Amino acid sequence: MFAFEKYTSPKMWSIWKSWIGFLEKPVDSSGLVLFRMLFGALMAVDLLDSWDWRVTMLTQRPIHFPFYGFGWLPLLPEWLAVIVQTLLIVASLCIAFGFFFRTAAFTFVLGYSYSFLIDRAYFNNHYYLICLLGLWLLLGHSNRRWSLDVLRKSTEPTNMIPQWQALGPAIQMAIPYFFGGLAKLNPDWLRGEPARYQVYQISDNPLYSFLVSQSWSGILFAWSGLLFDLFIVPMLLWKKTRAIAICLLVFFHVTNSVMFNIGIFPWLGIAGIVLFLPPSSLTRFLHYFSTPDNSTSDDNEHVTKTLLNSSNIIGAFFCCWFAIQGLLPLRHYFIPGNVGWTCEGFYFAWTMKLDVKSCFLNFHICDAATGRCVSVDHHKDLTDYQQYFLPREPKGIVQYAKFLKSQAVIEGLRDPVIVCDSICSLNGRPYQYMIDPQQDPAELTIPRFFHAQWIVPLNTAAPIGNYKTLAQKNEVVMQLARQTRLDKNIWPKKLWGKKIVDVTPKKQTSQDRNKEQL
Could you give the strand order of the β-sheet that contains 501-502, starting from the edge strand earlier in sequence? Predict the structure, then answer.
C-alpha cells in the first residue's frame, strides 16, 4: 500500500489513515463471541433438521443447475455426501464451543459454500447469508474468549478485538434488511400483492384469523414489512429506540416462522441482535462467564497489532467487499423486465417473499423429419426441490431442454426438436407463456449478464391479485396450450408444415391392468 501513499494527496492519505484507525480501534469482543456461540449452535440444529434433502442435494443425479462459473463442482456418491454433511455438523458444534475454531470455521465455510453453489434449485437468500457470516467469523478471533481453545491454551485469551471484526458481521447482517426493504419498493408490493395472498394462507390460524379477515390486511402486512426492513437497523443502533426495535424484531421473526416455515433464519435473525448491542451491556449481562479484563492501553495496542498486522489490506478488503455487497443487489434494476418474472438478477439480491408465481411446464421431444412427438416426464430426472424450481426459472428450463436434446441424440434420434409449454401467473395475473412457444429452447443461448430476448414480456397491464385462477390452474393452462398449439398452430420452425402426432404411450390404469389379468 506504499504506492497508494505515494500517488495520493496528503489529504486523501490522512482520510485513509483515519479509516484504518477506525477499523483498528480495540473494542470489546462480547457481541461477536456470543454470536459465534449462537451461530454454531443454530447451524448444527439446522443441518440436522435438513439432513435428508441436503444429502440428496449433494448426491449424483441426472442433471443439476450450478451457479454460473461453478459447473466444475462435482456431485458426490451418497456415502461421501453423508460424510460432508456430518463434517458440517461437527464443524458447527466446534464453532459454537470454540474448539479448533480456525479449522472448524474453514471447514464450515468451504463445505457450506460448496453445498450452496452446487445447485441453484436449492437457492435461498438465508443460505447465502450464512455463507457470508461464516466467512466473517473465519476472519475474526471470536475464539479468544469463552472458548475451549482458551481452556486448552491453544490461543491467547483477550477481551478485545479490532473493531472491523465486530463491524463486518454487523453490516453483513444489516444488508438483507435494507435491500429486502428496497426490493419491496415495487408496484405490486405497494398495492399489497402478494402479501394479501400470503395473509390468506394463514387465515385458519386462530392467532391471526380476525386480522387476516379484514380487506386492508394485505396492505397492512405489505407496508409494515417494508417499513420494518428499512428502519429496523437504524432503530437498533439508536439508544432511544433500541428496546422497541428488539421487541419488533423478535415479533417479526417469530411471526415469519409461524407464517412461512422458513427454517432457521428467524432464529438466526434474533441471534444477530447481539451484533448491534453495545458490548459493555453484553459484558455486564454475561460477566459471570467473562475473562477478567485487566488490560492497559499498552496491552490493547499490543492486542490490535497482534490480531491485525496487515491494516491497509484489511481496509482495502473492507471497502471492496461491501462495495460489491452494495452493488450486487441492484443489478436487476438495469435488466429489462420484472425480476420475479425473468429471474434475471434475482440471485444474491435479497428479493424475499415478493412473488407468488404459479407455473405449468410440459416438454415434448419431436422428430423434425416425421413430426412424431413424445411427452417427457421431467419429474423422473429431478429432485423435489428441482421440480419446484424448474418451471419458475426460464434459464433453468433452457438448460434442461438442452439436456433432453442431448439424451435424445444419444438414444438415436437424429434431429430432435424440443417443444416446451412454459406457462406462468405472477401475483394473480392471468396465465401466459413465459418462454416463446415458437422457439426450440434447446437451440437458445443463455446470456449470463444480459436480458434473454426469448423470455415473453410480462403483461403488466393485466389485472393482478386474482388468485382464484390458481385453483383452476390445470384447466386454464391446458386451454391456453391447446389454443397456442392446435388452434393457432404455433410450433418451433423445424416443425412447420409437419403433421404433429403425439405418440406418447398412454399410462396404464388399474382398470386396464385388471382387464389384462382377466
Answer: 432-433, 416-426, 357-367, 372-376, 501-502
Angle between the 163-183 and 30-49 helix axes, to the nearest 10 degrees? 50
Residue 87 φ/ψ region, left for φ over 0, alpha for ψ in the -120 to 50 degree band, beta for the rest: alpha
pLDDT of residue 295: 47
Q: Give the residues across from 417 on adjacent strands.
A: 366
Residue 202 burial (10 A CB sphere; 0-12, 13-18, 19+): middle
Which grid cell sits at 341?
418474472
Helix axes 163-183, 311-327, angle to 10 degrees: 10
Question: What is the separation of C-alpha 359 from the centre of its chain, rounded to a whole number of angstroms?
Answer: 20
Residues 20-61 pLDDT 10s: 888 888 888 889 999 999 999 999 999 999 999 999 999 988
Bridge partners of residue 433, in order along the sequence: 423
**Spatial separation of the C-alpha atoms in residues 112 and 132, rounded to whole Å:** 10
Residue 342 and residue 452 in contact, taking contact as beta carbons nearer than 8 Å: yes
Strand bridging mode 26-28 / 372-376: unpaired
Long-range contacts of 285-291 (CB under 8 A, 24+ apart): 286/30, 286/34, 289/146, 290/30, 290/145, 290/146, 290/159, 291/145, 291/146, 291/150, 291/157, 291/158, 291/159
Residue length, the chain? 518
Cell numbers at residue 216, please?
386492508
* Cα 61–Cα 394–Cα 444 angle in degrees, nearest 5: 90
According to DSSP, residue 485 is labeled I
Task: With CA atoms as reference, report the closest residue to 159 among 348, 9, 346, 286.
Answer: 286
Q: Would you state the pLDDT for residue 514?
A: 42
- As beta bridge partners, residue 365 has 374, 418
CA gyration radius for the chain? Answer: 27
